[in-house]
């Protein structure tokens, strides 16, 4: 069985910097509130019309492919993770395939929100291990800024998220490099609606087995997006932040310890933990719980906000570019998010 290595990595952050104070134009908030609760100082927003989730993914992918020493035509499978696709369907995978003039290869879209990149890496790892593919492009990209409520009503969510993209090229590991040691994926759908965007959707005001609101029987012709939904801001994400926090600080350490135990390793063996950049307070809580030093954890949410599926590859790329990850280092990637879903990837760089 092959092992999988990261052969190239790239990231793309839009040039427009939006500070906490810039958000005061749109909503009642403050730099102090945002920094204290989330650690975020600024984030990037994509160009309103010239950039999309796919185009940012393409920019990150170009760098990853070049660094892997191959061309887009060498890629034999795409896995694209995002929660804000250009279209409801088809997904961004095929749009990237078209934009990069790739061959008629498979393109898979992953919808696992903040854990999207971890899920995508795990799926791609299986294809490399079995020998099915030799060059897989894995992308995480988000254009959150196009789908947030920028009024005071949506401030508990909109201040947190930012735009960006990260990408890696996976190949079979060579020269005795063990590459990816393990991937672990988990879910618990019990609280699926705690961090979610309900519309557009086909739920017709029913959650599984539960009626949400008085709603006449839906008739043929009723739509999954209505004026009423827009008036009630139901087309924007919803989050019960405190419930998310409580679950995240349990599941993050759990899935990291699971990976270490499976590989007979200890937290002290980790050279770099790259946690999904959900919230600086969550990362600090996890660091404290695992008794990790500052130099064992990489955070950049301060500059980019929470970029969901892009956050892990962007942080990994930046840490590597800064020389904080070296050959042979034990790197742990971990994420937790909407679903809830969570997971980890443990690898030797
Ligand atoms: N600016 C100013 N005040 C605000 C803002 C804002 N942007 N947002 C909310 N408030 C106010 C609320 O209106 C409320 O005011 P009130 O007491 O007068 O009613 C007060 O602040 C507290 O509101 P809460 O929603 O209870 O805020 P909380 O203290 O829980 O902080 C936060 C919110 C930062 C989201 C916190 O719950 C948290 O850290 N949650 C973890 C979840 C998270 O970080 N998710 C990230 C995305 S999901 C993921 O990646 C896994």
Structure, explained:
- The protein is an alpha+beta fold and 349 residues long.
- It has three domains: 4-172, Peroxisomal Thiolase, Chain A, domain 1, CATH 3.40.47.10; 180-192 and 239-348, Thiolase/Chalcone synthase (Peroxisomal Thiolase, Chain A, domain 1); 198-235, no CATH class.
- The protein is 29% helix and 23% strand.
- The chain is built from ten helices and 15 strands.
- It has helices spanning 31-38, 53-67, 92-99, 116-129, 155-158, 227-231, 241-262, 280-289, 301-304, 311-321, and strands at residues 4-12, 16-19, 42-45, 77-81, 106-110, 136-142, 164-172, 180-187, 195-196, 206-207, 210-211, 238-239, 272-275, 330-337, 341-348.
- The strands form five sheets. The protein has a five-stranded mixed beta sheet, sandwiched between helices.
- It starts with a strand and ends with a strand.
Write the layout of secondary structure elements.
Elements (H helix, E strand, L loop, with lengths): L3 E9 L3 E4 L11 H8 L3 E4 L7 H15 L9 E5 L10 H8 L6 E5 L5 H14 L6 E7 L12 H4 L5 E9 L7 E8 L7 E2 L9 E2 L2 E2 L15 H5 L6 E2 L1 H22 L9 E4 L4 H10 L11 H4 L6 H11 L8 E8 L3 E8 L1
Parallel strand pairs: 4-5, 4-6, 13-14
Antiparallel strand pairs: 1-7, 2-3, 6-7, 8-15, 9-12, 10-11, 14-15
Helix pairs in contact: 2-3, 7-8
């Amino acid at each position: 069985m092959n092992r999988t290595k990261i052969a190239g990595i790239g990231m793309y952050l839009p040039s427009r910097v939006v500070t906490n104070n810039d958000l005061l134009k749109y909503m009642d908030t403050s730099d102090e509130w945002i920094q204290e609760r989330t650690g975020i100082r600024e984030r990037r927003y994509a160009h309103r019309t010239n950039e999309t989730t796919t185009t940012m993914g393409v920019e990150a992918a170009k760098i990853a492919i070049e660094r892997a020493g191959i061309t887009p035509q060498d890629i034999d499978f795409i896995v694209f993770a995002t929660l804000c696709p250009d279209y409801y369907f088809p997904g961004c995978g095929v749009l990237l395939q078209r934009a990069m003039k790739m061959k008629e290869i498979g393109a898979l879209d992953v919808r696992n929100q903040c854990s999207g990149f971890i899920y995508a890496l795990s799926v791609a790892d299986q294809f490399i291990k079995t020998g099915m593919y030799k060059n897989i492009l894995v992308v995480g990209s988000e254009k959150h800024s196009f789908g947030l409520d920028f009024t005071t009503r949506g401030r508990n969510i909109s201040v947190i998220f930012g735009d960006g993209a990260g990408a890696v090229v996976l190949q079979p590991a060579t020269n005795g490099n063990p590459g990816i040691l393990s991937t672990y994926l988990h879910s618990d759908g019990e609280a699926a609606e705690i961090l979610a965007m309900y519309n557009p959707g086909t739920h017709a005001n029913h959650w599984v087995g539960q009626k949400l609101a008085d709603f006449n029987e839906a008739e043929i012709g009723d739509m999954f997006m209505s004026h009423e939904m827009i008036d009630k801001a139901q087309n924007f994400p919803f989050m019960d932040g405190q419930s998310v926090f409580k679950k995240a600080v349990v599941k993050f350490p759990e899935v990291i310890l699971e990976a270490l135990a499976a590989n007979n390793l200890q937290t002290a063996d980790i050279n770099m933990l790259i946690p999904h950049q959900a919230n600086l307070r969550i990362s600090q809580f996890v660091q404290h719980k695992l008794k990790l030093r500052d130099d064992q954890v990489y955070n950049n949410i301060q500059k980019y906000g929470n970029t969901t599926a892009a956050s892990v590859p962007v942080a990994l790329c930046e840490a590597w570019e800064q020389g904080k990850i070296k050959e042979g280092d034990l790197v742990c990637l971990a994420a937790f998010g909407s679903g809830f879903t969570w997971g980890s990837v443990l690898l030797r760089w």
